[in-house]
Structures
1.
Amino acid sequence: MQLAELRGAKISAGDEQKIKMLDKAIKAMEGPKTSLHLSVHKETNTIMIKVMDKDTGDLIREIPPEKTLDVAAKLMEIAGILVDHRI
């Protein structure tokens, strides 16, 4: 059972097939000593990929870096504030 189903969300057959294909692609990209974790940056709605060491759990690489997305989110917030004040 998938996480979305556990949360009560309904998944269409097409979406379920996409999820299975994505899981298969992730498993194909993982190495014997690495694992991949996908997440979404809340403020920018950008997909982040983290490459982790399976043995230690250490972060090897993050694409794009979360700090970069945090800066982008802050810039978007500032731009929004500037627009709000001018109106």
2.
Amino acid sequence: MFNGQVTDIFFDLDHTLWDFERNSALTFEKIFLQNGIHVSLPMFLQVYVPINFEYWKLYREEKVTKEELRYQRLKKTFDTLGMSIDRSMIDRLSDDYIRYLSSFNHIIPHTKEVLDYLRPNYRLHIITNGFGEIQHKKLKNAKILHYFEAIINSEMAGVKKPHPRIFELALAKTRVAPENSLMVGDNLEADILGAQAVGFHTLHFNPTQDSNHDFCKIITHLSEIKSIL
């Protein structure tokens, strides 16, 4: 499908290679225990996950700051659950969450298998909206850092996916043309449409099968990449 044309593959990190939901749940379990927060973890996550998704969308759209994202996603979750948690505790939980999140290292099934398959023939890179201070730690602790030549994050670019500038920065740093570049990610708006607007080839990793479209090929397992490239 892309052979003979693609030389560089750019991956999103969270939800695409790094198992964000699993690692996030383990982090909350740890910090709630440490801080004496008594709440059912499944109940908390049921409320938190869509709120976090909502706030990340606002963050991508420059409608909230990083600090507002970190505070409000917890505040709104506890409010929804009817729990009275004061500002200082929410700030502590927010700090602890960032501190411990990258210490958990679960990755999406077939990640290393696919990276081992691709690395001999392609240059591999990361483009992420995640916070710069922890994305490197995630890659290192998950033992996949060595696969990637360039790691571009939104703080470095000054904008977030799907803004074209972050993709243009990635192309400039890796010295590759968009027609020789493939973006692989889980978010249709940020990863797929954002990269396509700059001329990338794209591959949508959609394991939950929650989006059906004709923008590009969709895969539900990372291992499918081996039959495409």
3.
Amino acid sequence: MLERAEIIRKEYLRHDKKFPHVWCPGCGNGIVMGALLRAIHSIGLSKDEVVLASGIGCSGRLPTYVDFNTIHTTHGRALTFATGIKLAKPELSVLTVMGDGDATAIGGNHFIHAARRNIDLTAIIINNATYGMTGGQYSPATPYGAKSTTSVYGHVEHAFNIAELAVAAGASFVARSTVYHASHLEQMIKKAIEKRGFSVMEIISNCHVQHGRRNKLGGAVEMINGFKERAVTIGKAEKMNPEELEGKITIGVLTDVEKPISTDEYRRIAAEAKEKADNITKAKEKNGIKRYEE
């Protein structure tokens, strides 16, 4: 009997076409991909039931390696393409994978309005606090004071709290984990996919080549172990004061609420409009008024 890992490798990866991957050794994107595949497998979804869309950046390469229905879109536009797919094929499980810059800079407007509308999508955001692929520029998630290629003397802007931004914008499910907490990450992704409505999964990851090197945070192992040291669960965080939470990463489910889903609402309105139009046509025909046709 095949081991779980072997089943996932054979079923879900384009293992004979697209490897070796382009990610740097130690990159957290591989951990995210593994957790995502395990979550999908545990839910029992077939690869034909899943759509994975991405934008531009290191995370944008992930759909290249997985054997789902995949689409590699333009910068910041993964959610717009995913919205169109979900409206056309509501029976599919539609996911996006984006970086912190991709999702919250050029894609920020799409992100907050997808949350506001509560579209039935899962948004996976890999937050490594930098634009890794394009040269290490600062992103909306780069910490205050951090160095980057566009803030060589230290970053003077303050970072978005991506998960809390999603909560405030109206997402029905928001969770956070890190690439150190691989098992926890898998469970959070599973919950996000299973939730109907707009689900956001923020994943704190490392870019040791760009962000880590410039800020003397060490290599991949040191950065990932740092997530372990800084992480606190939501339950524990609720008992801590702001000073104790300074520099910490809260992990777990931030919100899980039931709200009307816009993709369902669109179909309901369309059905009501069609029924009304059909009733008007029937009434006119009954009264001897022929339907006007171009």
4.
Amino acid sequence: MRNAGNFPGPIPPERGNLGALETLDLGFNDRTGQIPTELGNLRMLPMLWLANNKLSGAIPPELGKLAALRRLNLRGNQLSGETPALLGQLRNLQVLSLRRNKLTCHIPMELGAFSELQLLKLEENQLTGPISPELGNLAALRRLDLHSNISGAIPPELGKLTALRWLNLRSNQLSSLISPELGNLAPLKDLSLSSNQLSG
């Protein structure tokens, strides 16, 4: 269990000089300020964990340079603005958690390029617009959580996510018929569609 408050204050940009790092975990530390753009220099880094701090500002597009990254967890901060399209270059990413921030963009279509992604958590932000059909390209995805965010219809492309085990779309403003293609998700163990305006 992590101890909160051990290293409060901004993240030193000098962390970007540690080119041999295999893990950077600064979670649960009351970190403040913005994510330093210098972290984009950690080209060998497989895991970046900055969860449950008080980080603010935009997600720097420089994080899209972290080609070796497999786990990116920025949940539980005060990050705002858009999710940079450059994150779509992280082709080895397996876990992406941006939940409980203040992101206000559409779900970027570039996320559909994450062919290795197994977990995608974007819930409890202030996202706008519909679910990107491109998410149907995430062939390895096992968990998708978008609750308390979005509007529009459930795209039929989600029916292609045949590895999916958990789909949480509750407490959105989703409308229209439930896509019959969701019937293709035979391995699905948990489906939550409550508190929407769906029919069928």
